[in-house]
Amino acid sequence: PMAECVRVVNALANAIVSVDIPSGVTADTGAVEGEAIDADLTVTFGALKPGLLLMPGKEFAGAIHFVDIELESSLGDPVAELLEDEDVADLLRVPSSSDHKYSRGVVEIIAGSAQYPGAALLAVDGARSAGAGMVRYLERPGIDTTALVTAFPDVVISNAPDARIRARVIGPGFDGAVEQRGLLVAACAEEAPLVIDAGALTLLAGDVELRDLVIARGASGGVTVLTPHDGEFGRFQSVGNDRRAAALSLASSLQAIVVLKGAGTVIADQHGRVFIDAEGTADLATAGSGDVLAGILGALLAGGSASPIETAAAAVLVHGRAGRLAADVASPITAVEIAEFIPDALAALRANADEASRGE
Asked: Of 103, 142, 108, nearest to 124 (Cα)?
């Protein structure tokens, strides 16, 4: 009988408002086992429920309006956290008059291949636009850097060791060439925070020795961030119908931070902390978008002082905000346009945080 009620309500032309959570959506996971109310607006109380932010429940919730009814003292610890603009603004490092390019953070990008040369440009652009003091691109035999130099003359192209590197990004545009495994081994041996993305994730998933290197990094206090979408995640283990639990499981097994990308990106670490992102939209589902995110991650890890998982969650929000701003101008958008709007996204986050502070 309830399923029939849901079908009747969904067929109405009226606006539909759900109270707390749409009927049929599982509050903990967002799973929908059968029929569910397809709401235009959900007014929820006490705390946000993960099912409102995770797919497929996110699609049924519509716009979400939170009402605080002062339940904090009785709710216990949250199963996940959600960053707001003022949180991200607090995490973003504002350059001081005493800063120089090295103190602002040097990030190295190890990306691109003969098959996917554009990925390197997108990752570099993401890092530059997110405020890195210097972006280095690792020079490799057989990789033409002419387009990179032309587009970004400020980027340093070198294969010389540099102790000033504060974070590395590896994998965007990797195509499985033999030399790429050695690059990942070498990056894992360095102390700087490491973002493993795209083709490097494929290498990692299929190689027990590489996974052991990542586990050892985490066990010794090193920071590793993995950025799989569902397909890449599936090479490690099944996502299933609980994205939060899946991200936590992989983070624990690899002693790393996992950014499980998608609608309602989940960021989890090996210590059990979880963030869910509510900023990203379908506009981000475009080729190269993940390469830009990897660059943002590298820049914020190189320049920030916040906890690594908070930094990763902030990078995801900045990426999503840049996509929203780009889509406000024209839609559909490309990864190039996402990167172009990163400075605007950072400025908007700081401005919104200042406004909220004045309001308090």
From this structure: 108
